[in-house]
């Protein structure tokens, strides 16, 4: 689907800010540059205002930060042997998809937006490559979030059955299915003739506008994983609440010691010091495990929350617009598009913020380089 141009009415300058990236539904055509009087100037590049330069600078910084931060997470996982296991392989898969979004999708999207009328001047072959990577990488990034949530859910609810070997097999299967499904959604138009991405006459490059493909790709790329992560996190919350409540009830176990002190006050000094260290050790062990599971649950919750906030405005607009034959203002389409892209920037920040091992590994990595 195609986002609209970002117009700066105050200066009379139109900034095309929006592309077909990660887009999966039909949208209206673009707007060419305009003069202060309102006359259209087809084919002529409009001058850049201060606001336009500021917005472009922020987007370039977002692209660079997304690429570098995800690349740093990948390098850390590859160089630290302790990270060569679950769930770090799921984090690595997410980082790969986000690196590709920053390296292959976002720059070409920005170039397309900055052209007058959002015309595609890079040819049909590059258009197909860009659209394919667009849908592939964004879909893989979204499904990787769902895979991380599923892994955390099974870790909490099936602690005994979900052994290290089972966890390794499950994560490998989820990664394979994630990329296979993403490739199917991205390559379906090319493999099955499901619409055309490039329009040579209008110089337009966008995701296939076939209604059936729009429904298939939108549901497969967002609404299905959205349902998975919301259901999974609801189950995680219920399971964690049940386990934490059961541990708090177990903390009341030292009551027999109080009864024994009353019945045999002469032995109180012997009984109480003998039992207190045991009870204190059990509570500290439960507290450590509880805090670890709480941090993991909070990390998954924030990861899912940021994912929903970043992507749901864009996909809601893409679902509602074709049904009601209406369209949002161009500036909001552009904001929703880049808000979705920004999810690839937030993912590595969330991983490192809630994992002290990543922080220590990053510090040691920089200290070794010095």
Automatic annotation (TrEMBL):
<dbReference type="Pfam" id="PF00001">
    <property type="entry name" value="7tm_1"/>
</dbReference>
<keyword id="KW-0675">Receptor</keyword>
<dbReference type="InterPro" id="IPR017452">
    <property type="entry name" value="GPCR_Rhodpsn_7TM"/>
</dbReference>
<feature type="transmembrane region" description="Helical">
    <location>
        <begin position="171"/>
        <end position="192"/>
    </location>
</feature>
<keyword id="KW-0812">Transmembrane</keyword>
<feature type="transmembrane region" description="Helical">
    <location>
        <begin position="130"/>
        <end position="150"/>
    </location>
</feature>
<dbReference type="GO" id="GO:0071880">
    <property type="term" value="P:adenylate cyclase-activating adrenergic receptor signaling pathway"/>
</dbReference>
<feature type="domain" description="G-protein coupled receptors family 1 profile">
    <location>
        <begin position="69"/>
        <end position="351"/>
    </location>
</feature>
<keyword id="KW-0325">Glycoprotein</keyword>
<dbReference type="GO" id="GO:0005886">
    <property type="term" value="C:plasma membrane"/>
</dbReference>
<feature type="transmembrane region" description="Helical">
    <location>
        <begin position="335"/>
        <end position="354"/>
    </location>
</feature>
<keyword id="KW-1133">Transmembrane helix</keyword>
<dbReference type="InterPro" id="IPR000431">
    <property type="entry name" value="5HT5B_rcpt"/>
</dbReference>
<keyword id="KW-1003">Cell membrane</keyword>
<dbReference type="InterPro" id="IPR002231">
    <property type="entry name" value="5HT_rcpt"/>
</dbReference>
<keyword id="KW-1015">Disulfide bond</keyword>
<dbReference type="GO" id="GO:0043410">
    <property type="term" value="P:positive regulation of MAPK cascade"/>
</dbReference>
<feature type="transmembrane region" description="Helical">
    <location>
        <begin position="50"/>
        <end position="78"/>
    </location>
</feature>
<feature type="transmembrane region" description="Helical">
    <location>
        <begin position="90"/>
        <end position="110"/>
    </location>
</feature>
<keyword id="KW-0472">Membrane</keyword>
<keyword id="KW-0297">G-protein coupled receptor</keyword>
<dbReference type="GO" id="GO:0004993">
    <property type="term" value="F:G protein-coupled serotonin receptor activity"/>
</dbReference>
<dbReference type="InterPro" id="IPR000276">
    <property type="entry name" value="GPCR_Rhodpsn"/>
</dbReference>
<comment type="similarity">
    <text>Belongs to the G-protein coupled receptor 1 family.</text>
</comment>
<keyword id="KW-0807">Transducer</keyword>
<protein>
    <submittedName>
        <fullName>5-hydroxytryptamine receptor 5B</fullName>
    </submittedName>
</protein>
<feature type="transmembrane region" description="Helical">
    <location>
        <begin position="212"/>
        <end position="234"/>
    </location>
</feature>
<feature type="transmembrane region" description="Helical">
    <location>
        <begin position="296"/>
        <end position="315"/>
    </location>
</feature>
């Amino acid at each position: 689907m195609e986002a609209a141009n970002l117009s700066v009415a105050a200066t009379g300058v139109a900034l095309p800010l929006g592309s077909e990236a990660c887009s999966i539904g039909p949208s209206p055509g673009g707007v060419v540059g305009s003069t202060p009087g309102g006359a259209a100037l087809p084919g002529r590049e409009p001058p850049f205002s201060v606001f336009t330069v500021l917005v472009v600078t922020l987007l370039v910084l977002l692209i660079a930060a997304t690429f570098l931060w995800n690349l740093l997470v990948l390098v850390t996982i590859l160089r630290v042997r302790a990270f060569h296991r679950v769930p770090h392989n799921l984090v690595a898969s997410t980082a790969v998809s986000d690196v590709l979004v920053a390296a292959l999708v976002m720059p070409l999207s920005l170039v397309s937006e900055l052209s007058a009328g959002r015309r595609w001047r890079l040819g049909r072959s590059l258009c197909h490559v860009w659209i394919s990577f667009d849908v592939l990488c964004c879909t893989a990034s979204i499904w990787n979030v769902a895979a991380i949530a599923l892994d955390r859910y099974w870790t909490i609810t099936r602690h005994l059955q979900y052994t290290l070997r089972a966890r390794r097999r499950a994560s490998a299967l989820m990664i394979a299915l994630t990329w296979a499904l993403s490739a199917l959604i991205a390559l379906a138009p090319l493999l099955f003739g499901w619409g055309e991405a490039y329009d040579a006459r209008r110089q337009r490059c966008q995701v296939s506008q076939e209604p059936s493909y729009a429904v298939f790709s939108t549901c497969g790329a967002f609404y299905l994983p959205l349902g998975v992560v919301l259901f999974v996190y609801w189950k995680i919350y219920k399971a964690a609440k049940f386990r934490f409540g059961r541990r708090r009830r177990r903390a009341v176990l030292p009551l027999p010691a109080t009864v024994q002190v009353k019945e045999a006050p002469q032995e109180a000094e012997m009984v109480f010091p003998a039992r207190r260290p045991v009870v204190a050790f059990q509570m500290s062990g439960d507290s450590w495990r509880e805090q670890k599971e709480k941090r993991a649950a909070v990390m998954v919750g924030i990861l899912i929350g940021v994912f929903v906030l970043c992507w749901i405005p864009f996909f809601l607009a893409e679902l509602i617009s074709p049904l009601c034959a209406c369209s949002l203002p161009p500036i909001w389409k552009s904001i929703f598009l880049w808000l979705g892209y920004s999810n690839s920037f937030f993912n590595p920040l969330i991983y490192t913020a809630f994992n002290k091992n990543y922080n220590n590994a990053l510090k040691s990595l920089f200290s070794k380089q010095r």
